[in-house]
Design brief:
By secondary structure, the chain is of the alpha/beta class. Helices cover about 20% and strands about 35% of the residues. Strands 5-4-10-7-9 form a 5-stranded mixed β-sheet.
């Protein structure tokens, strides 16, 4: 359960994180996550998450939603049987908390802009 988020900070299961991160379907968290192209999200950036075989991947695109998925990423993931949802962090967190109890969900969060 993700219980809080503000600029540069996210709280998951009571622990505070201050760097971009990936949440795997089994609950494992990889912090200090970096993308190849800064504010662009590519399939390569989430390849390990895809390998974990989630049903859904939720991308928190930042507090203001400035991180953008590369064109066609949603279609590439759908071909792998993975639904992709990209939203600003507050909305992404709400969706993550709702879906993670009923589906195998992974997520990635950009914690700033």
């Amino acid at each position: 359960m993700i219980t809080g988020c503000s600029f540069g900070v996210i709280v998951i299961e009571g622990k505070q994180y201050t760097s971009d991160l990936i949440v795997y379907p089994d609950g494992h968290i990889e912090d200090s996550w970096y993308r190849r192209k800064g504010h662009s999200l590519s399939l390569d950036d989430i390849s390990k998450l895809v390998e974990s075989k989630p049903e859904v991947i939720i991308a928190g695109t930042g507090v203001s939603g400035l991180m953008r998925p590369e064109s066609g990423l949603d279609k590439l993931l759908l071909k792998k049987g993975i639904r992709f949802i990209a939203q600003p962090n507050q909305k992404a967190i709400k969706i993550y908390n709702e879906l993670s109890s009923i589906k195998r969900v992974g997520a990635c969060f950009h914690l700033t802009c």
